[in-house]
Amino acid sequence: MRLPAGRDAVTALGAVAVAVLLSVQAGTSQGDARTLDVWGYALVVVAAGVLAWRRAAPVAALAVSVAANAAYLLAGYPYGPSLLCVGWAMFEVAWRRPIRRSALLAAVAAVTSVAAVLPRLIGELDILALGLVLWGACWLALPWSLGALLHVRSAARAELLARVALEERVRISREVHDVAGHGFAVIAMQAGVALVVLDEQPEQARASLEGIRATATAALGDLRQVLDDRRPAVVLDLAALVARARAAGLPVELTSTAGDLPAAVQDIVYQVVRESLTNVIRHAGPTSAAVVVAREPGAVLVTVTDRGTGSADVVAGRGLAGLRSRVEAAAGSFTAAGLEAGGFEVHAKLPLDGDPA
To answer: Which residues are CB-contacts of 254 (< 8 A; sequence separation ≥ 6)?
Structure first.
């Protein structure tokens, strides 16, 4: 067993001093108890001194303290102070070990301690039952209960922190997917256009390369701001988003009659349009898209429709699942499905607090 930390050693020395002092005082008031001698003091010192390892090795500290206390009681020394050390050690075990394990260890410690004092109480039947109840409940069960309560509280706090960390990782992953996914999709389409027209239309190829540079710069800036946990202002600019999609070669018709929207709602609207256009660029093949943002009493409607051939492949994608969770978290509704006549449609409805219903 390693040497205890300095603070733990100092605490244990204080516990030893207090336990010895209280044992001397208990001996003066318990005339029928055995007078403290070298062995009595040694057992008190062991029972209290082992608390120096109460944090590094709480189970071992409890076992040694219980053994020393049992020997102390069986030898007939004064009641009381040595059991305080057992209670402290039991508290530490309950705090630092799982509930089931600490409860079992506490039960063993309680049975051992009661068994050690039982021979001295056999001749005093009038106080036997009351003494054992008070002995077990106040000195043993109470410390374990307090330690178990702290253990549960610490475990709950750790679980909460882990959950918050997981939610933050999911949020960042989703933001990175949205920002990078859209940027890469646009870059890929522009690169394809540049390759096709490179020899015959060099000016068009140059325009596509300029678009690639602009898209990459914007995507890197957005990504940097996402990782810095700041929302870029361009996130709320639907016109700029549609312009980038058009520059990538996707004809997009934008119709917006929603007017000014709350920032949180406007952000979700942008996310829906961006992810939907990204999917059209990636999966729909040669086609066009229509984006409609309309306001109705108490809500705003967002619809993105295309007439492509491959959009149905994205139904189970991570992006649409992320959109659904965003919209539903804002108490809205979300659908994404293929159309009978071909193509794909994404539809979201978001409530507007304060709007007349």
So the answer is: 238, 239, 242, 291, 293
Which of left, alpha, beta for 229 (phi over 0: left; psi -120 to 50: alpha)? left
Closest by CA position to 272, among listed 286, 258, 285:
258
Given the structure tokens 């619809």, which residue do they identify? 303
Residue 272: CA count within 13 A, CB half-sphere: 33
Residue 289 is given by DSSP the state E
pLDDT digits (tens, 9 = 90+) for 46-67: 988 888 888 888 899 989 998 9
**Phi and psi at residue 125, to the nearest 5°:** -65, -30
SS3 312: helix
How far, in Å, CA of 56 to CA of 299, rounded?
59
pLDDT tens digits along 150-205 = 888 888 877 776 777 676 676 666 666 666 666 666 676 667 666 666 667 777 67
Question: Exposed (0-12), middle (13-18) or buried (19+): which is 120, by Cβ within 10 Å?
Answer: middle
